[in-house]
Amino acid sequence: MPLRGSDPQSRRGPAAEPERSLIERAADALLVGLADGRSRDVETLLATTVASGVPPEAPLRELERRGLALIQNDDGTIRLARPLDLLDADSLLGRIPENVARRIERLELFVSLDSTNRRLLDGEPPRPGAARVCIAEYQHAGRGRRGRRWIVPPAAGLCLSAAWSFAVRPEALSALALAAGVAARRAIRDACGLDVTLKWPNDLVLDGGKLGGILVETAPRPRGGVLAVVGVGINVALPRDAAALIDWPGGATDLATPLRGVPPSRTALAAALIARLVDVLGSYAETGLEPYLAELRAADALEGLRVVVADAERETTGVAAGIDVDGALLVADERGRCRRILAGDVTVRPT
Description:
Elements: H1 22-34, H2 42-49, H3 57-65, E1 70-72, E2 78-80, H4 89-95, H5 98-101, E3 104-113, H6 116-122, E4 131-139, E5 157-166, H7 176-192, E6 197-199, E7 203-206, E8 209-220, E9 226-235, H8 266-287, H9 290-298, E10 306-310, E11 315-323, E12 329-332, E13 338-341, E14 345-348
Helix pairs in contact: 1-2, 1-3, 4-8, 7-8, 7-9
């Protein structure tokens, strides 16, 4: 179910809604109707938003499955335990600088979706020089690298993907996730003044906890081109029990925690992230990783720590010794010899 303003620029007409079950659509409608925290009659909401005949119990169970706490009043009405700050595409686009907004071919905003990355990979690619952006308040099949689970309750985080068509495959395409990490770091600083660190190859870290992650997926295009989709997930204000939903050994954190429990504006964060990502994607074919390398190294969450890195060849144990010019992780053994690792999973060993 698209939210209001899901295609604000109307350059190619309204976006087609993904195939959804009636219960999922009803749950989306209830989520929007209950978002302000006020009590509502569920049957009335359903009758005015989706086809009648959907038993209220089914979409209510779906909302609970998504991680929302519901309160039933004595008069039979329902409300959310806490209001939701849902995004609005018109307000969002109004926060994006005009020079960036001109490069956005389409911005889609959904209440729920399987995956924002999958939506862009399966859809029509943007024309060269333009971006397509997809945001979901809730992803029911969100994932990180190697298919790891990435699911947070609706409006508790930011789930955003941007697609870009490169006419020629960039030489440094394998390091795009690192440049996107710097873009996300800058967007967070823009929106709420917090400095996060970056754990190679794709994690955003705040005070030792996982704040977010980046997933870059590609698809070949004709004549040597490539479609790149950069997905970013950021925890904004997690419920207390939501950390268990995220696959991260050190636990999850969010932006609200260091801000004394007051979450930053999700609209400001989304606008800053879109602007930063479009800037990276628009210049990456020419610049590669070089403009982001100094900040990437300064924000390196691994440097000096003992790590175990598993890649396609073997498992490497040593001390993280920084990031090379092409984005490779350097791991030094006990003799000081460094191994370059271009892709792999990192585990930090206790000191």
